[in-house]
Specification:
This protein is of the alpha+beta class and about 500 residues long. It folds into 3 domains: about 5-90, Phosphorylase Kinase, domain 1, CATH 3.30.200.20; about 95-295, Transferase(Phosphotransferase), domain 1 (Orthogonal Bundle); about 420-485, Carboxypeptidase-like, regulatory domain (Immunoglobulin-like). The protein is about 30% helix and about 25% strand. The protein has helices spanning about 45, 50-65, 100-105, 110-130, 180-185, 190-205, 215-225, 230-235, 240-250, 260-270, 320-345, 385-390, 395-400; strands spanning about 5, 10-20, 25-30, 35-40, 75-80, 85-90, 95, 110, 130-135, 140-145, 150, 160, 280, 345-350, 360, 370, 375-380, 400-405, 420-425, 430-435, 440, 445-450, 455-460, 465-475, 480-485. The strands form 8 sheets. It has a 6-stranded antiparallel sheet, covered by helices on one side. A 4-stranded antiparallel sheet has the order 21-20-23-24. Helix 4 runs antiparallel to helix 10. Residues about 160-170, about 285-325, about 340-380 and about 395-405 have low confidence and may be disordered.
Length: about 500
């Protein structure tokens, strides 16, 4: 293929980058003498079975961003086709992706974090007020200019209020930044973008993403696991940011910030009333890796509404200390009395037993161990009258008796492994489903109950190409699996 020199009225200056969708060029508009970025979609992609859907997505990017005019959102100038090449001409913004800063473990002072988050949230608030939900807010879609200004880019999967291109039930986005409702296939709204912005805020404060792993693990964490507070990973993070962040990424969207402006206002108010604008935070080299956000938390915790008050003060500990002291004394007394009762209550047992088996739960090795304790053997004093009787008894009973201490044996219950689920939905329906080569009785759509683990999934239907993939099933979670089968 010869080198591209021109697209429509735009002169091609150079290639800026190449991706799965196509090529991005730096172009020049000779009529108004300005440089533009020209994003193209590959002809080869348009010739595949998914070509029509990809072109619709490409058009949607132009429609979504083209109706917007905001300092922190990349401007769209044109959407055209030239000799079979579809392209979008947009503002040429010379900046660096925020993702590159995170990849290089850059550290930010709070003033810079607040400046970037304020611009991002202001842009999102503008988007939402104009009926657009971005749905893929992540560091790779945020350009940081040399002067500190940012630009939100890539509206390829954005949803417009008047559009019906993407219905509830489809899953689109970047897993580590997706909201719970995106994973469950629900209809998304502005609060999904707010969740994604909260994940970026967490990454600014800690240098880590709160949800990492393969897609099944990330999904489980986003739906079930509450990450550690930023101040637990980085002691320099002001405590007020913990509360703000927690509300931004709470799993129930009804308890989340309802607007990006409310999120932005809480951040700015916290900074105004605090004195930490020069604290450097971020990066992942100043905390103990044993507290990594991946290893935390409770799957059973429930969301609460967090009212963020920047005037939160430290809780007084005087009365708390007194209460804890009294409780401690009572516990010690109770243990002492119990021990005295055990010591003073001898029990006669059979002489052949010379050990006590005590099952303990080993907190570190997670297994049962046997502790052997020797017991003191004492002779029985016999009267002359009893000797004749005793000699007629079995020898093993006559010889000796022993006194041992009985140690309470804790009950160690086996952990209950909860099953997981895969909800298989196909278009068309009534497809045959296989897990690890075993055909299932039920056809799609159906919610299959499975043990946690990896499964090879195969979907077949007469007249359509088979679909095969691998899925990880986690305990106590449902994996929504939607497949569009292609005709032969």
């Amino acid at each position: 293929m010869s080198e591209l020199k021109k697209l429509g009225k735009y002169e091609i200056d150079k290639e800026l980058g190449r991706g799965a969708m196509g090529v991005v060029y730096k172009g020049h508009d000779p009529f108004i003498d300005r440089f533009v970025a020209i994003k193209t979609i590959s002809r080869e992609l348009l010739e595949t079975g998914d070509g029509e859907a990809l072109l619709e997505r490409f058009k949607r990017e132009a429609q979504a961003a083209g109706r917007l005019n905001h300092l922190n959102i990349v401007d769209i100038y044109d959407f055209r086709e030239d000799d079979g090449i579809f392209y979008i001409a947009m503002e040429f913004a010379e900046g660096q992706e925020l993702q590159e800063f995170f990849d290089n473990n850059e550290r930010f002072d709070i003033a810079t974090i607040v400046k970037i988050m304020t611009q991002l949230l202001d842009a999102l608030n503008y988007l939402h007020e104009n009926g657009v939900v971005h749905r893929d807010i992540k560091p790779a879609n945020i350009l940081v200019m040399a002067d500190g200004h940012i630009k939100v880019t890539d509206f390829g999967i954005a949803r417009i209020d008047t559009s019906n291109l993407t219905q509830a039930g489809s899953i689109m986005g970047t897993p580590s930044y997706m909201s719970p409702e995106q994973f469950t296939g629900e209809q998304v709204d502005r609060r999904s973008d707010i969740f994604s912005a909260g994940v970026i805020f967490y990454q600014f404060l800690t240098g880590e993403k709160p949800f990492v792993g393969n897609i099944a693990t990330i999904m489980h964490k986003v739906l079930k696991v509450h990450p550690l507070s930023p101040s637990e990973l980085n002691s320099q993070v002001p405590a007020i940011f913990d509360a703000i962040l927690k509300k931004a990424i709470t799993k129930n969207r009804e308890n989340r910030y309802q607007t990006a402006k409310a999120f932005m206002d809480d951040i700015n108010r916290a900074v105004r009333e605090g004195d930490f604008s020069t604290i450097k935070i971020g990066g992942n080299d100043d905390h103990d890796d044993s507290h990594n956000a991946d290893t935390v938390c409770s799957d059973n915790s429930t969301d609460t509404v967090f009212d963020v008050d920047p005037k939160i003060k430290q809780t007084k500990t005087g009365n708390t200390g007194l209460v804890l002291g009294v409780v401690g004394v009572l516990v010690v007394l109770a243990l002492g009395v119990g021990w005295w009762l055990i010591q003073s209550s001898p029990v006669v047992v059979e002489p052949e037993a010379n050990i006590v088996e005590q099952r303990l739960k080993d907190d570190f090795m997670k297994k049962s161990v046997i502790v052997k304790q020797p017991v003191e053997i004492k002779e029985i004093k016999q009267s002359e009258e009893s000797k004749e009787v005793l000699t007629k008894l079995p020898e093993n009973i006559v010889k000796k008796q022993e006194v041992v201490k009985i140690v309470p044996v804790p009950v160690i219950s086996e952990p209950v492994v909860e099953p997981g689920f895969i909800y298989v939905k196909t278009e068309p329906t009534d497809a045959i489903v296989f897990f690890n080569g075993k055909q299932q009785e039920k056809h799609s759509p159906y919610r299959f109950k499975l043990k946690p683990g990896s499964y090879q999934v195969k979907i077949t239907k007469s007249g359509y190409f088979d679909m095969e993939t691998e899925i990880e099933v986690s305990s106590d979670m449902t994996f929504p699996f939607t497949v569009g089968l292609q005709k032969k």
